């Protein structure tokens, strides 16, 4: 199992997971525009936002200026393409995307990731082990609550017995799809192919910490997927996570990638 990091610019990778915005200083109209900004994979112009929201550009521009003043959005000039002044590009800040509780949780996670990175002899291995136990525990909890009864019927048995079902493609597919559901519940906004083998993780609950300590945070997330698959009795070796692999997403492979 390995993590491949290829792409270091901040605009690559998933977007932070929005969670219960607390926007006491914003008007309803400003919050509506901020919601649209949060959902965009890259910075937007006034014209693009105005078209999406069916509002006049001057109205949208006024609200965007208020968001910038409130530190809920940033404004940068677009690349110059010819004569005249370049358009402004607007993007929601990370802080605006998260609730106060989520910000505190992310700060704690970043501190813990930093501690592991500084003190562990093998941060990636320790992170992977922690993630695996987390993934197993989440599946056990779902089983105990009865949330996975239908999944268990589809997999033709009881998860957690450690038996790989490589000879049962339907059961393996069901297990991978259950992991995709788990990632969605955790806030990763996954987008899977038909076989649930390649997953685009379009959100990240711990994006700031992942930028600071990818070997730890991304290692935990990779271990999470491996542990969940293992607890489901599915093949769990050879998984690969590519952090910040493309614009708007990380990429997780739930099957071994040929060398």
TrEMBL record:
Listed InterPro entries: HTH_MarR-typ, WH-like_DNA-bd_sf, WH_DNA-bd_sf
SUPFAM superfamilies: Winged helix' DNA-binding domain
Domain called HTH marR-type: residue spans: 26-83
Domain of life: Bacteria
Region of interest (Disordered), ranges: 1-23
Protein name, UniProt field: Transcriptional regulator
Species, as recorded: Sanguibacter gelidistatuariae
């Amino acid at each position: 199992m390995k993590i491949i990091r290829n792409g270091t610019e901040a605009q690559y990778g998933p977007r932070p997971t929005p969670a219960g915005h607390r926007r006491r200083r914003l008007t309803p109209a400003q919050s509506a525009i901020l919601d649209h900004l949060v959902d965009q994979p890259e910075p937007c112009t006034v014209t693009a936002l105005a078209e999406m929201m069916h509002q006049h550009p001057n109205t949208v521009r006024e609200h965007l200026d208020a968001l910038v003043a409130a530190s809920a959005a940033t404004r940068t000039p677009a690349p110059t393409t010819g004569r005249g002044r370049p358009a402004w590009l607007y993007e929601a800040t990370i802080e605006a995307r998260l609730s106060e509780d989520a910000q505190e949780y992310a700060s704690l996670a970043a501190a813990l990731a930093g501690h592991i990175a500084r003190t562990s002899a093998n941060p990636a291995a320790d992170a992977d082990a922690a993630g695996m136990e987390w993934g197993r525990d989440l599946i056990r909890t779902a089983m105990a609550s009865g949330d996975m009864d239908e999944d268990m019927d589809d997999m033709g048995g009881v998860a957690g017995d450690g038996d790989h079902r490589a000879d049962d493609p339907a059961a393996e597919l069901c297990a991978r799809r259950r992991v995709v559901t788990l990632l969605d519940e955790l806030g990763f906004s996954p987008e899977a192919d038909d076989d649930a083998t390649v997953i685009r993780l379009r959100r990240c609950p711990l994006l700031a910490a992942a930028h600071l300590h990818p070997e730890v945070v991304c290692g935990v997330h990779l271990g999470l997927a491996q542990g969940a698959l293992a607890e489901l009795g599915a093949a769990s070796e050879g998984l690969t996570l590519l952090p910040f692999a493309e614009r708007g997403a990380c990429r997780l492979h739930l099957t071994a990638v040929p060398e």
